[in-house]
Amino acid sequence: MSSLGVEGEGIWLALGTIGMLLGMVYFMSKGWDVQDPREKEFYVITILIAGIAAASYLSMFFGFGLTEVELVNGRVIDVYWARYADWLFTTPLLLLDIGLLAGASNRDLASIITIDAFMIVTGLAATLMKVPVARYAFWTISTIAMLFVLYYLVVVVGEAASEADEDTQATFNTLRNVILVAWAVYPVAWLVGTEGLGLVGLFGETLLFMILDLFAKIGFGFILLRSRAVVGSDSAPTPSAEETAAD
Ligand code: RET
Questions:
Q1: What is the CATH number of the domain that holds 142?
Q2: For residue 214, is it within any domain?
Q3: Which pLDDT tens digit goes with each residue over 181-234?
Q4: Residue 213 alpha carbon to ligand 1 centre in Å
Q5: Does 1 reside within a domain?
Q6: How far does residue 195's CA lie from ligand 1's centre (Å)?
Q7: Side-chain half-sphere exposure of 157, counting CA atoms within 13 A
């Protein structure tokens, strides 16, 4: 059953758009007069993440990011491909955020980002394929890539972080746990959702992805940009009265 139009799930796409925009505006206002170059870098990356997601959600809300896939068994599914365009850019940026925080080498950053991009591209392949067994094969490949990303994050990036100061270590640990918990749910959502077994309909799946996306992007940004690891950068100016009041 499909009519290739945004239906009830549009409410979640609208909420997702608003959530991402609010997050972006909050980060922008908070980072407006940040001077420290390192701190600025975290702001730029995190604002970009929210901005890309807002654009992607808006496109899905208007039905632009939606397509139909006709499987060989006759089943027709509605697929929001715009998610993958979003994730292809935002997941590397999230890893860049946490990798720079940890002080990981450029080489390690390049490695983890490459595996991550592979994860998203194979996930998109799984989503667009017409033969069910091929879909599950690519889902498996993508999930294995995700396990590598998470392993790399914990072990390799974690090792870099263990040499950082206490504040940085604490923030790294929190953000790493956010990633471990949130990211691991995505392949499960795909599997139980319309792309996979269809146990959850498009309405429930869109809601689930919206919650995950807001947590993994805006929640992540909140924790990062409010942390002493970022705010307390070496050359950070003494906090203004306004900032002190906000804390
Ligand atoms: C797919 C489908 C195939 C299997 C796997 C997936 C993983 C997706 C992930 C997405 C993370 C998105 C984030 C967005 C930020 O808001 C592509 C769903 C493993 C991990 C963090």
A1: 1.20.1070.10
A2: yes
A3: 999 999 999 999 999 999 999 999 999 999 999 999 999 999 999 999 998 655
A4: 10
A5: no
A6: 13
A7: 28
How do residues 148-186 score in pLDDT, each as one tens digit?
Answer: 999 999 999 999 999 999 999 999 999 999 999 999 999
Residue pair 188/209 in contact by the 8 Å Cβ criterion: no
> Is residue 60 one of the residues assigned to a domain?
yes
Question: Percent of the chain beyond pLDDT 90?
Answer: 90
Q: Which long-range contacts (CB under 8 A, 24 or more apart) does 94-98 make?
A: 94/49, 94/179, 94/216, 94/217, 94/220, 95/149, 95/153, 96/45, 97/42, 97/45, 97/46, 97/49, 97/175, 97/220, 97/224, 98/153, 98/157, 98/172, 98/175, 98/176, 98/179, 98/224
Please tell me if the CB atom of residue 224 comes closer than 6 angstroms to any atom of ligand 1: no
Residue whose C-alpha is closest to residue 90's, from 212, 187, 192, 207? 212
Question: Measured between alpha carbons, how far is 11 from 68 in angstroms, rounded to an integer?
Answer: 20
The verdict on the CB of residue 194 being under 6 Å from ligand 1 is no
- Which residues span the domain enclosing 52? 10-234
Q: Report whether residue 126 contacts ligand 1, using a CB cutoff of 6 Å.
A: yes
Per the structure, how many domains does the chain have? 1
Does the beta carbon of 122 sit less than 6 angstroms from any atom of ligand 1?
Answer: no
* In a domain? residue 82: yes
